[in-house]
Every structure is written in C-alpha cells, then in structure tokens.
Amino acid sequence: MDRTSLIAELNSRGLRDEAMTGPLYKRLAQALTGLIQEGLLKSGTALPGERDLAEALQVGRVTVRTAYRDLLASGAIESRHGSGTFVSERVERIEQSLWRLSSFSADMRSRGREPAAKILSRTVSPPAPEESFLLGLGQDEPVLRLDRLRLADGQPLAIERAVVPIKFLGEDAVSEGSLYDALTGNGFKPVRALQRLTAVTLDPTSASILNVKAGAPALLIERISRLEDQRVVEYTRSHYRGDAYDFVAELRIGDDP
C-alpha cells in the first residue's frame, strides 16, 4: 500500500466521525491495527513519518506520535534506528497437537509449507553422563549431537538440538532432512515419545539465530523418543518461537472411578 492509498484508507475509516468515541490517537491506532490485521499493510511496510502523516491527515503531530507509541508497545510496528517505522515482521502461527508424534518436516509439509534445516553444529563423541543415562548407553557407544535451525518457507521457527546413538544412524547420516525419516530408513522408527514443555525466554545468541529480540518468549520442548522395543532412540531439546507456535491437546472427562 503506497502513501496515497494509506491516507485514503485511514480517512475512510471515520477518524473524524463525531459518532466515534475515544481519543483521536486511539482511533488512529485502531485504524492502523485494522489495516495490518486485514493484510492491507504488509509486514515490513514503511510507515510515514510523524510529521508527514500528521499533515496528510490534518491532525496534530502529538496524535500521530502517541498512536505510534501504542502500536510500538503492542508490537504491531517497530522502529528501526536511522530507517524509520515499519510494520513488524510476523509469522503465521502454527497449531501443533501434543498427542501426535511426527517430525518437523512432516508437520510443515502437511501445512503446505516447505521445511528446511541449517546445521549449526554436528559432532560425534562419547555420551555425557546424563546422555548415557537417558539413552541407556555405555561410555563406549558414541552419539551424534546435531544442532539445527529449522525453517519453514525460509522463516526460522525453531532451534533443535538432538542427541542420537550412532548405532541407529551411522556417522554420515542426516544433514538437512528429517531425522525421523533417516531413523525410519535405517529400520529404527520412533513410535512413542515423552515431551515436556517449559516457557522460557531466549538468550541473545538463540534470539539472533531465530531473528527475534533477546528475551523474546519461547517454548522449550524436551523429547525422549522410543522404539517399539522401548529403547531410547532420540533425546532432543528444541526452542520454538513463542510468536509462531501454539501447542494444543484435546482433553476428555473420564468416568469417575
């Protein structure tokens, strides 16, 4: 939406309508929010400066400044030093069931999105004591530690840190594809898992990788996956962007004992 269209759209929303209630800056903020939510103002769109928008709408500059302040506080817009004010980059929220065990790649493909992975680190070494305990391994049984950035349609969504016994994969297996596909292809298909979710905030390094601000909310998901014979095949810690994921579960009221 160009500047002329934006001004026309804002004026059409009755900013000066005497029937409208509330301060003018609130009405302006609501009108801009509506344009963002309706997709008329796209993510990354540059907004007019305070003076330009005030003159175009014939309102006080303080009105525009206060409206922008409210939108900045809500996260709808962002200020970029030396560049101006922009509609915030938003990701489409993803709803994922807590009751279905599936890979990130399969989840994204089922939504018509293209999954990808960027390897952050990849090492093979003996298991740490905690890993040895969780995976049921001896110290002479090496593990693959695979840290990856998971993306959908090029948008970073999660940092995944997986630990898998090499005996289930082989040292050369898995790069940017599905870990579960690689395990299944080797005859070690995960069939059940225990997941634990914790609300956390992102440290500066993780936030930078996920392209969000340091301290942004995230979901830490720890998962232990097992084979049909109960052997542990994977231990993963993943940080999912809090602005991108909703994890849901269907609950039923059981009969009283």
Proportion of residues in extended strands: 25-35%
Helix content: 25-40%
The outline comes out as elongated
Oligomeric state of the chains in view: single chain
- Tell me the radius of gyration: 24 Å
Order of helices and strands: HHEHHEEEHEHEEHEHEEE
Q: What is the helix tally? A: 8
Task: Quickly list its features.
257 residues; alpha+beta; 6-stranded antiparallel sheet; 8 helices; 29% helix
Note down, in words, how this protein is organized.
- Pfam families: GntR (PF00392), UTRA (PF07702).
- This is GntR family transcriptional regulator.
- InterPro entries: Bact_HTH_transcr_reg, Chorismate_lyase_/UTRA_dom_sf, Tscrpt_reg_HTH_GntR, UTRA, WH-like_DNA-bd_sf, WH_DNA-bd_sf.
- Residues 22-90 form the HTH gntR-type domain.
- Keywords: DNA-binding, Transcription, Transcription regulation.
- There is one protein chain.
- With 257 residues, the chain is of the alpha+beta class.
- 29% of the residues lie in helices and 31% in strands.
- The protein contains eight helices and eleven strands.
- The chain has helices spanning 3-12, 24-37, 50-57, 61-74, 104-110, 129-135, 179-185, 204-210; strands at residues 46-47, 77-80, 84-87, 94-97, 115-125, 143-152, 155-165, 192-201, 217-226, 232-241, 245-248.
- The chain has a six-stranded antiparallel sheet. The protein has a three-stranded antiparallel sheet with strand order 1-3-2.
- Helix 2 packs across helix 4.
- The protein is elongated and about 75 Å long.
- 25% of the residues are buried.
- The model has no long low-confidence stretch (mean pLDDT 85).
